[in-house]
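Researcher: Sequence recovery benchmark, item below. Answer with residues only.
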């Protein structure tokens, strides 16, 4: 970046900051807590820490990552709802967050009212993995064999209601095989079970699979998105293997407590978007097989609504209840 461009960027940031009320200008007044609804070491945790490192440079203090796994994100969501709506407590969410009302008859919060969407961080394919010794050479052969089993097969996921669980529901519907999800404390733990032969299959975000696949410890059968991943280019899509239209993945975003003041929404949106789009975070996310987004609060709210409209009927059709 030239000196002139650097000066222009700094000037624009300074002018944007000066337009905010005093409370937003002096933010953060103390360390910001970022709640992660899953255990350390999983995809959501890795993404949260990647963005936190960039925010630390901007804020001059390191955000505190607080892992609160349990109940498909409900435990973490309750913690966020109880926090003061001042911007000092945030949560990284994934696919299951807007869909929990479909899974649970009653929740201890209102998913629409009690959360403030800030930004979508990014998105990534999911990967269907099997043990290295699996005899089926592709997804088509694997699911055809699964169809022949009256009780179906089990597969590992990081939890009920997650993107991996939903991808398994979709795979069951399109392949005709009975697939039963087995929740684990994390996606990495599910992969460990596959590696040791304790499970025939696992579905995980790409970034959890990359190194294990390269080391030959698991064998990826398919990615779940419409296009192949540049990170694992030799792994075909489900659509390429006979399941036309199969297209789903995992996404991550940031929400704050409900009733967050508009000036704080603006400040957090700006800071998070710049962190996500920074060269360092962009490079790291792409290295992990993810596509950075950094959307506006309005765009993220619309995206959450579209996820609800897309997956609500699927969940109802599969009659999935998690009580």
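Model:
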């Amino acid at each position: 970046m030239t000196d002139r461009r650097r000066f222009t960027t700094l000037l624009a940031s300074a002018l944007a900051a000066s337009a905010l009320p005093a409370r937003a200008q002096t933010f953060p007044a103390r360390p910001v807590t970022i709640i992660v609804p899953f255990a350390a070491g999983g995809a959501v945790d890795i993404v949260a820490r990647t963005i936190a490192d960039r925010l630390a440079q901007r804020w001059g203090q390191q955000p505190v990552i607080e892992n609160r796994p349990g109940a498909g994100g409900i435990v973490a969501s309750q913690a966020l709802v109880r926090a003061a709506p001042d911007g000092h407590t945030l949560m990284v969410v994934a696919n299951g967050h807007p869909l929990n009302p479909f899974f649970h008859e009653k929740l201890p919060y209102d998913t629409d009212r009690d959360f403030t969407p800030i930004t979508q961080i990014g998105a990534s394919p999911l990967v269907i993995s099997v043990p290295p010794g699996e005899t089926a050479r592709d997804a088509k052969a694997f699911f055809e064999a699964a169809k022949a089993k009256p009780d179906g097969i089990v597969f590992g996921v990081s939890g009920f209601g997650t993107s991996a669980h939903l991808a398994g529901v979709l795979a069951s519907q399109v392949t005709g095989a009975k697939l039963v999800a087995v929740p684990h404390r994390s996606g990495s733990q599910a992969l460990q079970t596959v590696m040791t032969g304790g499970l025939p299959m696992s579905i995980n975000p790409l970034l959890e699979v990359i190194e294990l696949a390269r080391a030959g410890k698991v064998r990826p059968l398919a990615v779940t998105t419409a296009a192949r991943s540049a990170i694992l280019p030799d792994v075909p899509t489900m659509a390429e293997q006979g399941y036309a239209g199969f297209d789903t993945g995992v996404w991550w975003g940031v929400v704050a407590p409900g009733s967050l003041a508009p000036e704080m929404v603006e400040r957090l949106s700006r800071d998070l978007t710049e962190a996500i789009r920074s060269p360092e975070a962009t490079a790291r996310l792409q290295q992990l097989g993810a596509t950075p987004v950094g959307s506006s609060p309005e765009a993220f709210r619309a995206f959450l609504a579209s996820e609800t409209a897309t997956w609500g009927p699927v969940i109802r059709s599969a009659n999935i209840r998690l009580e």
